[in-house]
Model the fold of this input.
Amino acid sequence: MSLYNKSLSLNSTIDRLSQVESLIDELHEGGQLTESVYGNVLVAVTEAFLNAHNHGNAEDTSKRIDLEFVISDSQVVIKVSDKGLGFDFEQLPDPTSVENIEKVSGRGLFIIKNLSDELEFERDGATLVMTFQKTPKDVVVA
Done:
């Protein structure tokens, strides 16, 4: 059962990131995002938005980034989609390996994978589906 469902379609510009962060803050303040998931959601969705803008949409401001938030009693599912062609998510370099440790980019998906409880790729990687499980103490029993 979904308690909250919201979709956004935003211009692919960095200044729209503040709108996404504000929505996440509002969801936290309204109780839809509990303390146990709030920080992870904020960082992971920020990373996903930046990846969609920088890589998927190649910083093309005429393209859009679509976000969908579905929040239930037990989990938070967020989709972030860009208008790009996707990427080979099976062949991502390990940012913690010796040859990549000094690189200034390439950590976004690593961060998202480690913050979310589940990460799926749709549309050949042009859509990320992040799932965050609420802890048992957060789950409301009716």
